[in-house]
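Side project, low priority. Logging it here so it doesn't get lost.
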Amino acid sequence: MKNILILNAGTRDTLIQDFLKTVNDQCSIIVTDNYELAPTVYETQKQYVTKRWDEEGYWDDIIDICKTENVGLVLTLVDPELELLAERKKIFEDMGILVNVANVETVRDTFDKYKTISYVMQHGYNYIKSYIDYDSAKEAIDNKEIVFPLITKPRKGSGSAGIELVNNTIRLKQICDENEDVLIQEFVKGQEIGVDVFVDLITGEVVSIFAKKKLKMRAGETDKSVSFKDNSLFSLISSFAREFGLKGVNDIDVFERDGKYYISEVNPRFGGGYVHAYAAGVDFPKMLLNNMNGITNKNSIGEYREDLYMMKYFAIKVIGKEELK
């Protein structure tokens, strides 16, 4: 029996619980983290406390775990590990292990927000006007192509870290002088949308799309949302995901403005709000399990419950010293 290995699961307990619910006794879910107090380490029967992904010997240890546990599919839940995993994709595939990640070039393009926007623009999709230096942004302001307020954020980064709403050229210049890799964008007044997408790892076809309107954000993640359906959005995302080269599980951020959709960012992994999709009937763990077992997934785009609200809340896990891993 092949098993699924989830790297650096951290605090994604609900996601791990969803995996366990789906696979039942069809395989084992094995999780890792570099901290023995990561709560997900205490959700499964098999787990490993490892080195950090950037420490020497880490990947050798992961390969040993794969051999020991008869791993058939591996994925990570943290951004910094995605490119490293993509770089080693062939190593795992040569071991007969499926990897839930796109090729390394695509992953790099998703981590660089300007490259993502440039691709969106160059391939004829609606795009958010974006700049990577003060002079080009100032020229666009002077030409009235964009107006304040503007959004600045790290060109490469995760979550909401470093995002600022800027209201004048003085502050914009300060930010650009203080940061080498800054992304300057027009402020989009519209509905923010999160889209969970599954691209079959065997066929490369987009087989599942789940859309939710983000009602409230917290620490860069969706805190409250409601599911909805729109065939024009499904068509847009299907085309983009296929052309961009996405594989497996992905999370795409979109804005809706005046009836048009604008692709903003791409995260080639499980998004923080995916638990909403699972609750609505979109089972990515099942799709991964199918692919691991050589089964292609049928098209189920839009097959989920609409008008279903998600509200996140805090939970805790308490253990005794004798239970520490």
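Brief comment: The mean pLDDT is 96.
Revisit when time allows.
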